[in-house]
Inverse folding.
């Protein structure tokens, strides 16, 4: 079976963009892949985090993983900092990455642009991500479109290391969905839906109440034309809502647009509220059960042991190949 690896940062507010772009694929892939899903707390400290909140957010994401249908018996679920191999491999890859290629990463450019000085960790973020992936001999990485550049860098690093040292790493492929791969902010469909945007109505979090979901969708930016039609360039707001509708319902955007032809935005938005509420309600019910349970901690401990066993072998192989250590 092919190996799948992916990760989500424990930074709160997991939204429908995360779900439709990445998390939903995680569940589907379990059917015929050997899956490893990580909570990447080491990535999250590239931005300031409150220690108490960080601990809670780690458990929130773990509980969400299980609530959406990730089965800890079939897949490995664990926290990145519980497995030392991520930091070890990251350093080795850092020494083989170029500052030029890292400074071209759009995420780094965006996150550092208004700062007088940025943490070096933010600059090295994609190298740690490459270490996460290569540590498990990963074949497939399901992520949202915004991670494309990081996956390319991971592939480049794997190829580079293989060229230098022999057969060190599996070269992984990204897996991106057609609809949902890039969910845009509801108040500004030209920027992606994000966990950290100040306006809470710009996103729909997986744990939002039906009232909040309704308000967010009814307020969502559209245009004055009044026609439900998919046209990203001229109608980015409506197209984004169509995309979300399509991803939740499994229906084609054209088919959905045809259903609302001539009926304005009201009915379309109302139905989208219903579809979204129906999709998140069962997730929220499970979440309530799991979040406070001891079982959650047991699952993460077991996951760290299983991930640790796989990663130790890779770290040993890599260290041997580069000539590290004395014992
Ligand atoms: P992060 O919150 O940055 O850890 O992202 C977790 C996963 O969600 C990654 O695979 C991202 O590519 C994906 N993701 C984040 N924001 C969006 C979005 N607005 N649309 C689609 N996918 C997203
Ligand atoms: N950088 C990813 C994001 O922000 C999270 C991540 C870290 C990741 N390590 C990973 C995703 C490894 C896939 C594989 O979304």
């Amino acid at each position: 079976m092919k190996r799948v690896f992916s990760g989500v940062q424990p930074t709160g507010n997991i939204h429908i963009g995360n779900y439709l772009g990445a998390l939903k694929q995680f569940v589907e892939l379990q059917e015929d892949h050997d899956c490893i899903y990580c909570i990447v707390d080491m990535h999250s400290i590239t931005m300031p985090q409150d220690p108490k909140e960080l601990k809670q957010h780690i458990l929130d994401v773990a509980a969400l993983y299980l609530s959406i249908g990730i089965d800890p018996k079939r897949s490995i679920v664990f926290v990145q900092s519980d497995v030392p191999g991520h930091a070890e491999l990251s350093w080795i890859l850092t020494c083989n990455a170029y500052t030029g290629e890292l400074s071209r990463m759009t995420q780094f450019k965006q996150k550092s642009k208004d700062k007088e000085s940025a943490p070096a960790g933010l600059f090295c973020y994609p190298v740690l991500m490459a270490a996460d992936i290569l540590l498990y001999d990963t074949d497939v990485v399901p992520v949202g479109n915004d991670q494309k550049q990081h996956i390319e860098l991971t592939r480049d690093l794997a190829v580079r290391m293989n060229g230098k040292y022999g057969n060190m790493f599996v070269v992984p492929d990204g897996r991106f969905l057609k609809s949902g791969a890039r969910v845009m902010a509801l108040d500004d469909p030209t920027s992606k839906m994000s966990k950290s945007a100040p306006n809470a109505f710009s996103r729909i979090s997986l744990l939002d109440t039906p009232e909040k979901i309704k308000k967010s969708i009814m307020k969502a930016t559209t245009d004055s034309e009044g026609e439900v039609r998919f046209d990203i360039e001229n109608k980015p707001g409506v197209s984004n809502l169509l995309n979300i509708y399509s991803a939740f319902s499994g229906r084609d955007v054209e088919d959905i647009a045809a259903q609302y032809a001539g009926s304005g935005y009201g009915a379309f938005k109302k139905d989208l509220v219903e579809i979204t509420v129906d999709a998140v309600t069962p997730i929220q019910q499970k979440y309530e059960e799991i979040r406070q349970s001891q079982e959650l901690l047991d699952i993460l401990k077991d996951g760290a042991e299983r991930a640790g066993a796989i990663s130790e072998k890779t770290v040993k192989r890599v260290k041997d190949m580069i000539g590290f250590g004395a014992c």
